[in-house]
Design brief:
The protein has 2 domains: 35-153, Immunoglobulin-like, CATH 2.60.40.3500; 157-350, Zn-dependent exopeptidases (Aminopeptidase), CATH 3.40.630.40. It is 32% helix and 32% strand. It has 7 helices and 16 strands. It has helices at residues 2-31, 188-205, 227-239, 272-289, 302-305, 322-329, 331-350; strands spanning 35-47, 50-59, 66-71, 76-82, 84-85, 92-94, 100-108, 111-118, 127-132, 142-149, 166-171, 209-212, 244-253, 263-267, 293-298, 311-318. It has a 6-stranded mixed sheet, sandwiched between helices. Helix 2 (188-205) packs across helix 7 (331-350) and helix 4 (272-289) packs antiparallel against helix 7. The longest helix is centred in the first third of the chain and has 30 residues, at 2-31.
């Protein structure tokens, strides 16, 4: 009889040990996800000069996979994040702006659903969704990015093919060097910078790493530097950044006669890759801008000869031409040109 009790006790201990070992692992398996939400931020921003709402939802792990559904009548945008737990973010976030009323975050069936109640129906072109990797410098985790636009715009398309590429953009002139000046005072340096910054935003929103030789109205090397110093400084920005895939310099043309008109692109003689880039940029700019196409040309420009990667210099139009000066100053026309440049770059990477 004592033996029976001893065996029963032993079996009970073994069962308890097994359950103690297995149950936590089973519970962890049931609740485990590749991602847990841990960050939420919203902000009003300007994208291509237009008002927009940006929502960032961060999470553990790498960039997530997601699906999107539009519900026009309910004015809802629904994003399902697979294998993701709700984590620490709030279940309901009330918003006070002209774009969205609230964000609801719920978890079910191994996925998390983000429902955004909008003020307008989510038709194509009024929003964009993408993912971003973790940014250690900004102390931000991997996150899903939702951008809701005030109105449909040519600037909202997400361009495939450039993600992960490093591109250097060089807005010509700047600071003490105005470049060419049009009949009503429009300066080449201002047009080049405005178009360059629009291209930067489009490429960055599509996942490219964009490096600008200048982002404000400054000399790149130093105020009143020599021409050679200034040009070499622009080349150095590209050459000293490992992995730079392309260099694109943005300019406006000028001539003593206001009748001179049209756009053109340049590359360094002997560079097959430079020609391919200049040719694709030329095609897209001609199609979008509607100006006379002066063609694809070679030139002995310093920035084309002294950069170590495929390079092209763009002449967007003649700022000294009355009609083209007016176009080049227009935000809408600058947006057209920026989109064309991005399409040309994307086509280059697609081969």
């Amino acid at each position: 009889m004592n033996n029976v009790f001893r065996w029963a006790s032993l079996v009970g201990v073994l069962v308890a040990v097994v359950l103690g070992l297995c149950l936590p692992q089973m519970a962890e398996a049931r609740s485990g996800h590749s991602h847990e939400l841990n960050y939420f931020q919203s902000s009003r921003v300007k994208i291509a000069g237009a008002n927009a709402l940006r929502i960032e939802i961060g999470m553990t792990g790498d960039e997530p996979k997601y699906t999107v559904n539009e519900y026009l009548l309910r004015r809802q945008l629904v994003i399902d994040l697979s294998n993701t737990g709700k984590g620490k973010v709030k279940r309901q976030i009330t918003m006070k702006n002209d774009f969205a009323k609230q964000v609801q975050i719920t978890e079910a069936g191994g996925k998390t659903r983000v429902t955004i109640d909008l003020t307008k129906a989510p038709v194509p072109g009024t929003y964009r969704i993408s993912t971003l990797p973790a940014d250690r410098r900004a102390k931000k985790p991997a996150r899903i990015l939702v951008e809701i636009f005030e109105k449909s715009s040519a600037m909202v398309s997400n361009t495939p093919g450039v993600k992960g590429k490093t591109i250097v953009l060089d807005p010509g002139h700047g600071g003490s060097d105005s470049g060419a000046v049009g009949p009503t005072g429009v300066k080449e340096k201002d047009v080049a910078l405005a178009v360059g910054r629009k291209v930067q935003k489009l490429l960055a929103n599509s996942g490219a790493q964009v490096i600008m030789t200048r982002t404000t109205d400054v000399d790149v090397y130093a105020p009143n530097a020599s021409g050679a110093q200034e040009l070499q400084a622009r080349c150095n920005v590209a050459n000293r950044n490992p992995g730079t895939a392309l260099f694109v310099s943005i300019h406006c043309n000028a001539f003593s006669s206001p009748a001179a008109n049209g756009m053109e692109t340049y590359y360094c003689a002997g560079s097959q890759k430079g020609y391919e880039l200049a040719n694709l940029l030329n095609e897209e700019l001609a199609r979008a801008g509607g100006l006379f196409n002066r063609g694809v040309k070679t030139a002995n420009y310093y920035v084309l000869r002294h950069t170590n990667m495929p390079a092209s210099l763009i002449e967007l139009g003649f700022v000294t031409n009355y009609h083209e000066e007016k176009l080049l100053q227009s935000d809408a026309y600058q947006t057209k040109l920026a989109n064309a440049i991005v399409r040309g770059i994307a086509r280059y990477f697609k081969g």
